[in-house]
Specification:
heterodimer, B: Rossmann fold, 10 strands, 36% helix
Amino acid sequence: MFRTLGRIALSFIQYLGELALLVAETVQAMFVAHIRWRLFLRQVVEMGFRSQLVVVVTGGFTGAVFAAQTYFQFHRIGMESAVGAVVSVSMFRELGPVLTGLMVAGRVGAAIAAEIGTMKVTEQIDALRALGVHQIDYLVVPRVLAMMFSMPMLVAECVALAIWCGYLVGTQVLGISKAYYIHQMITFTGTRDIKMALTKGFVFGILIVFVSCHQGLNTKNGAVGVGRAPTEAVVISSLSILIVNFFLSFALNIFYPAG
Amino acid sequence: MSAMIEVRDLHKTLGNQEVLCGVDLQVEKGQTIVVIGRSGSGKSVLLKHFIGLLKPTRGEVLVEGQPIAGLPERKLGEIRKKVGILFQSGALFDSMNVEGNLAFPLWEAGLRNKKEIADRVAEALEMVDLAGEQKKMPEDLSGGMRKRVGLARTIVSRPACILYDEPTTGLDPINSDSINHLIRRLQKRLQVTSVVVTHDMKTAFHTADQIAYLHEGRIYFYGDAKGLQDSQDPVVQDFIMGRSGDSD
């Protein structure tokens, strides 16, 4: 029992150590090696541009259903006009970044781990190294930069769609006054909430990209390993997002307190 | 002759298994050495040490007299410009076509003149008998063609030494023979040092100036092809003749 727990603890510490080394190597590479901007742009298209549909649909429907459920509860106590504020603040501070993070982990994290993992087991990464190209410079740095650039924008897009769809459902379907809806929303939503959403999105993006790159770079055992790498990347990224979000909410509340 | 590659007392442990247990080997400039041995005997592991893809557990690896075992990955870039490697699978970048694969090392080396890149790609493809195949994707190539393209990618940046990791494994006898001739032809045309790792005796006898037999983690035999064939050592003879010792 204790031995098993010890082994789990040790492998967790080893995992964190490997991840920290990858982060350190990547940061070093950003300063000592030249940045491949062409690869960065390709990754922005792959990670950011092509993730828009999934993020927009997630945000839109979440905002719509959230507005409806809030209305059903608030209607009983005559507070329908507060629906806009609740949807907006919740989406900015919690749901927007977390949902975007989970969707991007599923779409982009899995793709990163699968692509790098396949390159690992087919000796393509060894080929890169043999041609004098550092694997971190070529595979990790462009992805990290692209994720840092794309993720806050995806979060903004998700939240914007959620608010818009919530507004449509609230005002067009449920009959809440447009003027009250917007007034309450603007009153209770501030730049602090926007900053919190973007900061969380940025942090989650970094989590996803490093976890996924690490899984890809450590892929072993041929096809079985390539099959396992994306699954593990998505599971670890998703759990990390949910756990880190809890602590991040408290920490960021110090800098951006809820209004 | 001076040594292009030298390994001294090389040890490598993978997991709990000591794959190499004190290998000493010297590859002279312009020479072709073939390393033979059974599958899993550590031939490819040894080869990967020559270019710093693996770090030894103990011992030294020198490329043109420079120790590389302790060098960080970023410092190995210069060494790897001198020594190219053909991987067992070809290891082509499957996101790029043949032209992209061959242009990659040139682009990474800082060459930006598109005409010069195209000319050098065409020249390398012509050397491996694949002229005009620039636009094909790796998935459209046969096993033999993938190895040829892999070899073209290795020679396009004109290294002083080429390492071949099982160049004929998985190929039919005719394709294997064609690759053997190609290796010999490239040696003559480019005057490069070559190290060929194989368990294919035909490749060994066809391409080698010297043959090193890796057995139980050490160089068991070192000499020319005739010396190997004439050896009366039963271990060497069993390997050459392909005798497993098993009975029906």
